[in-house]
Each structure stands twice: as structure tokens, then as C-alpha cells.
Design a protein that fits this description.
The radius of gyration is 10 Å and the shape is elongated. Strands 1-2-3-4 form a 4-stranded antiparallel sheet. It has one helix at about 40-50; strands at about 1-5, 15-20, 25-30, 35. It has 1 helix and 4 strands. Helices cover about 20% and strands about 35% of the residues. With about 55 residues, it is α+β, with helices and mostly antiparallel strands.
């Protein structure tokens, strides 16, 4: 299982992205949103980057 941390530009929000063999890649934001892009790891990282840089 791989994991990556994505932090917002201001460092206020950090999301751990987990690669699970059964469900694919996903991240859970502290705001409660579950973020995934069809389970693809690289696409999910990009989706999380966009999410954490938006106002919560």
C-alpha cells in the first residue's frame, strides 16, 4: 500500500492519499470529503491538490 500526503499552499490542510488494492486510490479531507478520481493514483493526487487549495 502506498501513501502520499498532499498539503495546501498555506499548509493548513493536509490529506493523506492511500492506494488500496481493492478500492484504488482515495483521500479523506479533514472537512469530511472523500476524494478520488476513478481510483487512479496520479489523478487522485491532482484532484486532492485542487481540493485542498479551495476554501473550506
Amino acid at each position: 500500500m502506498a501513501q502520499v500526503l498532499v498539503a495546501s499552499d498555506d499548509g493548513a490542510t493536509v490529506v493523506e492519499i492511500v492506494q488500496d488494492d481493492e478500492v484504488g486510490a482515495f483521500g479523506v479531507c479533514p472537512c469530511g470529503d472523500r476524494i478520488s478520481d476513478r481510483g487512479h493514483f496520479e489523478d487522485t493526487v491532482q484532484a486532492v491538490e485542487v481540493h485542498v487549495d479551495t476554501r473550506h
